[in-house]
Input
Amino acid sequence: MNDRSHLTTRAARAGAHVAPGAALPLVPALHQTTVYGYPDLASLHRVNNGEERGQAYYRFGHYNGQVLEQVVADLEGAPDAVTTASGMAAITGTVLALAGAGDHVVADRNVYGGTRSLLEAELPRLGIEVTLVDGADLAEVGRALTPRTKLLLVEALTNPTVRVPDLPALSALAGHVGAKLVVDATFVTPALLRPLEHGADLVWHSVPKYLGGHSAAMGGIVSGPADLVARIRQTVVHLGATVGPFDAWMALLGLKTLGLRMQAHSRGAAAVAEFLAAHPGVLRVHHPSLSDHPQAATAAKLYPLGTGGMLSFELSGRPAVDRLIHRLNGTIPLSPSLADVSTTLIHPATTTHKDLPQAELDALGITDGLIRLSVGIEDPADLIAELGAALAG
Ligand SMILES: Cc1ncc(COP(=O)(O)O)c(C=O)c1O
Output
């Protein structure tokens, strides 16, 4: 067939049989394919039946997703992990896999707005009862848990006021009623805290934040014991919520610098928090390194390496917020995400938390003057100079 007249056939099969050399690429190759070819039925069946690790059709799992799963499971100290198309796909798959009609879910009311929407808008329709609590108030959490409770959902650090739930204590409370403690560790990553070591049953992330690190790769990931991960994987396949190979590959590139980035984010945020706390134009700063933080002691115990780049601070009101955003345009942009290597800010009351009633905003401490800053890896002295200039007067 090796002549011009069979060009159409040869082109259609292009590259499928070119074997790689003996050496492995330092960066695992991108397998941008939705399907794989097999030499015989028996080997395809072994992969489909889960007897052998492999790839068949991308929605069931593919090479780049599996590489990311192995790497993150290892970093989390977990037996297994499953990748998903987004962070929301990770928590949706987890909840639907582990709770059903007649069950009960307890969640910290401080969780990310998207997670809260999922809980409040979707779960009651499916017959799953949801109770929201203050995750830092152990007595309130204890009162909410019942023998019907399947899941206790919290964030390792909350958004935007950076509260620090006591994970070992929450794990003990969940354990009493047989509920699983599920921790969103997007703000901290395994470089700063491995929730499974502190009693969590499952840990999950929105990948475009710190894990991927550069606001480029989309995805989610859930790590934990093999039996729970297998159930979640099945639900994720049913939902069709598989991560794309290119996103998984990009996330892996970002992960290589995770440890260094988290050190720089933590150092920068602590320095900026100290500067803002001493500034006369700033009414209040929320950061676990400050002595007036309500969970400073828990933070010191759980986070010996720092708490990452997230902090929030309060100005006198909306005019001061608008002025600051205007003055920082060009250096620290207003951006509806977080955890990039460059510093960004957001106004939670009118963006991430805009759908909450005023009473809820008051309960969460989200005032009109509150700004959340996601401190990047820039030189902290530059950030302090830029913030200082923008706050002047
Ligand atoms: C803390 C946290 N968890 C989960 C999510 C949801 O992840 P995704 O946007 O990847 O679906 C976000 C999104 O901003 C988040 O900030």
Q: What stands out?
A: The chain has two domains: 51-255, 258-391. The CA atoms of residues 55 and 62 lie 5 Å apart. Residues 51-255 form a domain with the Aspartate Aminotransferase; domain 2 fold (CATH 3.40.640.10). The chain has 15 helices and eleven strands.
